[in-house]
């Protein structure tokens, strides 16, 4: 149906970031006229997100599984299982997140989600921003663009995953997360298996690869199949699939964004470059952005990374890019030599100067000192064949 009205805010993309902002505005009873335009025509169970928090927290209603310990393991048998008293690794299923956000938005009379809409152009006009779609045009005062962008990156975290179910008990400890297991690194990058046991007979298992170029999805699926076969799970019932290519470390670029438009979500800086974690960062941004809008101010994008965190991430990624064959050693050193509470704070954007000092002390000095200078030549543009 063609648009025949103007709105205060258009949200481009109604994935994790777009739905988070829309639902927070709905919860606040915002009178703003908001429409979120989403290319997909329906939501399927195609994602999951994890994060560390205490047992009870403001997102507990979304959590379907939690674990109190997590394991790092190399293909050579080196293993480090860690835990932090009172802290849990929480799992949010995509379908639960979508259903919750859509229910909250549906309760609002001024906010709506429009699925199956393709955006064709965004341009500045005298009275705001004009968004052209295959259903017509809409003029908004502001636009928040949460759509993914294809931009250069230093490394890519490619993954293919599946949720499986078996009749017999699973062949691993179902009371802990396999955070990075079977780590094997070589000149072509680091590969590892991520295991989320959901019950004694059900688990999410992902094969993940850090590499200088994005890998084709078919290659990732073949690696995942080999992992499942090696675990004796080759004949397991497949319940659903996950896939993705996450850019790790992007160059500083001057934005050519249209006035009145801000970027958010994965394309706007939500992803933590060294870890791939984004869910809590998106929730924090959505809360701040919704507050801005409630106060009558323009929406905001993700804040710039603090200098210390940005530089730590850059140096680490450059070292991984320069010495891919040593990457498993780097992660195992972090897991075994850094107190787990310090490592979790680092991965969760809460590191203190003391945490940074301990992390630096756990890693070999010379390879990381060599990466102090910035190396813009390391950035590679993602190819569509991997997506």
Descriptive notes:
- The chain is of the alpha/beta class and 387 residues long.
- It has nine helices and 19 strands.
- It has helices spanning 16-27, 94-106, 217-230, 279-294, 307-322, 327-337, 340-347, 353-362, 365-369, and strands at 7-12, 34-38, 48-54, 63-67, 70-74, 79-82, 87-93, 111-115, 119-125, 128-133, 136-145, 152-153, 155-165, 177-186, 189-197, 202-211, 237-248, 261-263, 380-381.
- The strands form four sheets. Strands 1, 2, 8, 9, 10, 11 and 18 form a seven-stranded mixed β-sheet that branches. A seven-stranded mixed β-sheet has the order 6-5-14-15-16-13-17.
- Strand 9 and strand 10 (128-133) form a beta hairpin.
- Helix 1 runs parallel beside helix 2, helix 1 (16-27) crosses helix 4 and helix 7 (340-347) packs across helix 8 (353-362).
- The radius of gyration is 21 Å and the shape is globular.
- The chain starts with 6 loop residues before the first strand and ends in a 6-residue tail after the last strand.
Task: Give the helix/strand layout.
Layout: E1 7-12, H1 16-27, E2 34-38, E3 48-54, E4 63-67, E5 70-74, E6 79-82, E7 87-93, H2 94-106, E8 111-115, E9 119-125, E10 128-133, E11 136-145, E12 152-153, E13 155-165, E14 177-186, E15 189-197, E16 202-211, H3 217-230, E17 237-248, E18 261-263, H4 279-294, H5 307-322, H6 327-337, H7 340-347, H8 353-362, H9 365-369, E19 380-381
Parallel strand pairs: 1-2, 1-11, 2-8, 5-14, 11-18
Antiparallel strand pairs: 3-7, 4-7, 5-6, 9-10, 10-11, 12-19, 13-16, 13-17, 14-15, 15-16
Helix pairs in contact: 1-2, 1-4, 7-8
